[in-house]
Every structure is written in C-alpha cells, then in structure tokens.
C-alpha cells in the first residue's frame, strides 16, 4: 500500500493518493470549488468563510479530506485569505514553483489529491515561529471543529 503519515504526535494516519479524472472531480465539486481546486483559481479576497474564523479545529482539504492545517497555526495577516504559518506536517502539502500572472510564487497543493490550495510566502516579517504565510483559499478547505474531531 502506498501511503504516508500525517497527523499529530503519537498517531499515524496512512493515506493513499486520491486520483480522479476531471469528470469525477466536476461531479464531486461545485463549479466554484472546481475552479479553485482543479484549475488553480483564486476566490476574491475577504470573501471566504474562514478568513476571520477563530474556531478551534483542523482544516482539511475540501476535495479529499486530508488534514492540512490546524487552527493553532492560523494567524491574522490581513491579506484577505486564511493564513497559516505551517501545515499539519511537512508531507501534508506539496510546493511547486508558479510563474503565472507575471510573478514567481510558490504554489501550495494538497499532497493527497494534488488540488490547488493557494500560495506560501516567506520572509514577510510576521511574528510567527516560521515567518511563512500559507495564504489558502477558504473554498479549498473544510474546518472540522475540535468537538467533532
């Protein structure tokens, strides 16, 4: 079985890669979700449901359910999208060079299903342990509150 471990200290979750064709993704996701997750779109700033959320819990990939970020790593960056300073584990996301729109950025994708999540920026001076800002589209996430996990 090809899997990887993600999750917190003392627990091991083995997750297989999720592979679907574009027809299956279109059936599973709303048009807005499909645009962001499968076509690397971006939701308008300050429009997402998790921009100002303070709920304690785990943020999972809306497409496949993989654990991506914890509320403890979410911080106010005032950029218009939820911001986190670290993923749940180093293998929860994959990072790719993105040269679209005349910029050089680092794209963040779900390591389990290869869905576009957003971008990560480094060295902006935020008072966080990593000085990384994972700028993630709300529509790419699903928050599982701590009382449900």
TrEMBL record:
Which SUPFAM superfamilies does UniProt cross-reference here?
Answer: Mss4-like
Q: Name one GO biological process term.
A: protein repair
Q: Which reaction does it catalyse?
A: L-methionyl-[protein] + [thioredoxin]-disulfide + H2O = L-methionyl-(R)-S-oxide-[protein] + [thioredoxin]-dithiol
Q: What class of enzyme is it?
A: oxidoreductase
Give UniProt keywords alphabetically: Metal-binding, Oxidoreductase, Zinc
Gene3D superfamilies linked: Peptide methionine sulfoxide reductase (2.170.150.20)
Residues in MsrB domain copies:
22-146
Which Pfam families does the record match to this protein? SelR
Asked if the keyword DNA damage belongs to this entry, the reply reads no
Tell me the superkingdom of the source.
Bacteria
**One Gene Ontology CC term in the entry:** cytoplasm
- Per its Swiss-Prot or TrEMBL entry, what cofactor is needed? Zn(2+)
EC id:
1.8.4.12
| Name this protein carries in UniProt | peptide-methionine (R)-S-oxide reductase
Tell me the organism: Thermopolyspora flexuosa
């Amino acid at each position: 079985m090809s899997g990887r471990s993600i999750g917190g200290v003392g627990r091991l979750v083995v997750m297989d890669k999720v592979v679907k064709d574009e027809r299956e993704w279109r059936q599973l996701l709303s048009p807005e979700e499909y645009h962001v997750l499968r076509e690397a779109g971006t939701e308008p700033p300050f429009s997402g449901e998790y921009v100002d959320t303070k709920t304690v819990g785990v943020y999972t990939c809306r497409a496949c359910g993989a654990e991506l970020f914890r509320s403890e790593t979410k911080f106010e960056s005032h950029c218009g999208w939820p911001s986190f300073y670290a993923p749940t584990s180093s293998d929860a996301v994959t990072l790719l060079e993105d040269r679209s729109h005349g910029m050089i950025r680092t794209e963040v994708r779900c390591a389990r299903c290869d869905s576009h999540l957003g971008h990560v920026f480094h060295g902006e001076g935020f008072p966080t342990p990593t000085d990384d800002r994972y700028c993630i589209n709300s529509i790419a996430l699903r928050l599982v509150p701590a009382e449900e996990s």
